[in-house]
Design goal:
The chain is an alpha+beta fold. Helices cover about 40% and strands about 20% of the residues. The chain has helices at about 5-10, 25-30, 65-80; strands at about 35-40, 45-50, 50-55. The termini are close together.
């Protein structure tokens, strides 16, 4: 994991939940942990990570996440066995 991915992971697990994480940085984090991202219809993507998969919607027209999306990413990472202790 590089420094930028580490910072993204810190932001995802930060409280209160931030609402301004760039979605591209989150996708880079998924890939950094070995995740596979498959394009789906529209703005949907399916992320597979450590045996867990989930469909996300890329935010648009803005390029940043809202709090609900960050919470979903946080839960997905926890379900895949990744948490803030790995920082």
């Amino acid at each position: 994991m590089n420094a930028k991915q580490r910072k993204t992971l810190e932001l995802i697990f930060k409280n209160p939940v931030p609402s301004d994480i760039r979605w591209a940085d989150i996708e880079t984090l998924f890939r950094g942990f070995g995740g596979i991202i498959e394009e789906r219809e529209g703005s949907r993507i399916c992320v597979k990570l450590h045996g867990v998969k989930l469909v996300f919607h890329r935010p648009h027209p803005k390029k940043v996440t809202d709090k609900g999306a960050v919470k979903s990413v946080r839960k997905f990472l926890k379900d895949a066995g990744i948490n803030h202790d790995e920082i």
